[in-house]
Amino acid sequence: MSFMKHELAIDLGTANTVIYQNDKVVLDEPSIVAIQSRTGNLMAIGRQAQLMEGRENPGIVTIRPLVSGVIADFNAAELMIKGFIQKASGAHSKLFTPSYKLVIGIPKGSTPVEIKAVRDSSEHAGGREVYLVYEPMASALGIGLNVLDPQGNMIVDIGGGTTEIAVISLGGIVASNSIRVAGNEITKDIAEYLSRQHGVKVGLPTAEQIKFKVGSVLQELPADVEVPEPYVIRGKNIVTAHPVESEVTYQEIAHCIDGTVHKIEEGIQQVLNQTPPELYSDIVENGIWLAGGGALLRGIAQRFTDATGITFHVAEDPLKAVGRGACAALKHVSHYPFLMR
């Protein structure tokens, strides 16, 4: 019987799962599954399942197995991880079970029970050697920072379900905050605002699209940021159920998401307050790095810079920072003491 070993680095995100193999992205799909209600059998995962979301008939249920960065539905998570690993590695043969060496990013605020759920799901999906790494540490590696250096670095990773804030020095996390306020909350803010102010009912996938097209955290954008055109929304009027068309501007989005963004600001300030003076001076000198999908919101670096007095930098390709970092850790598992077996 053939025996194969695959090495995969996984960013298991609330909104998206990214898998790297040999420094290449081999999978980048929404973290969602579609299951037959009666049998519990898997029908579709990822992009295919997302197309069914909000359009299901009674025989189909779509599930997002991760909520706030942690596994909320163990069975669905296991089906999703297994399906994604098979898809990423091309291992569809029934003649052998490949053995996987995995490095998986998890939120810093994960409880022992949540950590065990990720480990168990990964092992049931074929992981023979499973290492876990906290997301802010993976982000720092993915950005290209020397995490083993004594100099302090600070990361703010705004994902789908959690915002991970951490100060890193000498291969460890010195001060951190994992808050369950992130991209999904911002998407909900937008959907609720459109319902309240425009009288239009939109699903979360449409609200997510609006976030990317016209999302901003500032009412006035700096000169170096391109001003987006108003977004035309088409939906049904919540009173009459008639079709309706309305325009939404970036200023409106900045207004409706302000409270959620302010909670992230408070989380950043809490970590800065916990930071030892020597590391704080390093951070002032180096600036703070932004990663995750939330880093793509227009004006976010400027807003946080104004709020803290410390310069914020947006990482290159911030959505993939955790995946790239997990990939870097996978190559040198014995080199990094912070990896958890």
Strand order of the largest sheet: 3-2-1-9-10
Strand-pairing-aware structural class: alpha+beta
The total count of strands amounts to: 18
Number of helices: 11
Question: Secondary-structure element order, as H and E?
Answer: EEEEEHEEEHEHEHEEEHEHEEHHHEHEH
- Percentage of residues in DSSP E strands: 25-35%
Question: Which percent bin holds the helix content?
Answer: 25-40%
- Which residues sit in consecutive blocks of at least 5 with pLDDT less than 50? none
Q: Rounded to an integer, what's the Rg over CA atoms?
A: 21 Å
Q: Judging from the principal axes of the Cα atoms, what is the shape?
A: flat
Alpha-carbon distance between the termini?
28 Å
Mean pLDDT across the residues is: 90
**What profile does the largest beta sheet have?**
5 strands, mixed
Polypeptide structure, described:
This protein is of the alpha+beta class and 341 residues long. It has helices at residues 47-52, 74-89, 112-124, 135-143, 183-198, 204-214, 250-256, 258-274, 277-286, 300-308, 321-331, and strands at residues 5-12, 16-21, 24-30, 33-36, 42-45, 60-63, 66-67, 70-71, 99-106, 127-134, 153-158, 163-169, 172-179, 200-201, 231-237, 243-248, 288-291, 312-314. The chain has a five-stranded mixed beta sheet with strand order 3-2-1-9-10, sandwiched between helices. α4 (135-143) crosses α11 (321-331) and α5 crosses α6. The protein is flat and about 60 Å long. The mean pLDDT is 90.
